[in-house]
Amino acid sequence: MKRVHFFIYDELAGQINEAINRWGFNSQSEFFRYLAMDFIRNEKKLLTTDDTLKDHTKAIRMIKTNQRKTFMDPQS
């Protein structure tokens, strides 16, 4: 097993300790292992800014198209 060392600010350390106590982690190591695994599992869901912009643009175009169809032909 690899060991990882890093420094964090005191304010963040306090927030981490509160989360550890609130969610019942046994240690800071367990907390960070869980976060790392959760990030890796969910990283495919994270979109870059460009991807997000493309998704929003596509959604707006679909809404405009649907509104235009409804305005032109109320039966559709």
Structure overview:
The protein starts with 9 loop residues before the first helix and ends with a helix. 70% of the residues lie in helices and 0% in strands. It is elongated and about 60 Å long. It has two domains: 1-45; 47-76. By secondary structure, the chain is an all-alpha fold.
Short description:
The protein is mainly alpha-helical. 70% of the residues lie in helices and 0% in strands.
Proportion in β-strands: under 5%
Rg, Cα atoms, Å:
23 Å
What class would the helix/strand composition place it in?
Answer: mainly alpha
Shape: elongated
* pLDDT averaged residue by residue: 82
> What is the H-and-E element order?
HHH
- In DSSP terms (H or I, runs of 4 or more residues), the helix count works out at 3
- End-to-end gap: 61 Å
Proportion of residues in helical segments: 55-70%
Largest sheet: none
Our count of domains comes out at 2
List how many beta strands DSSP finds.
Answer: 0
Question: How would you classify the quaternary structure?
Answer: single chain
Poorly predicted ranges: none
SSE arrangement:
Elements: H1 10-23, H2 28-42, H3 49-72
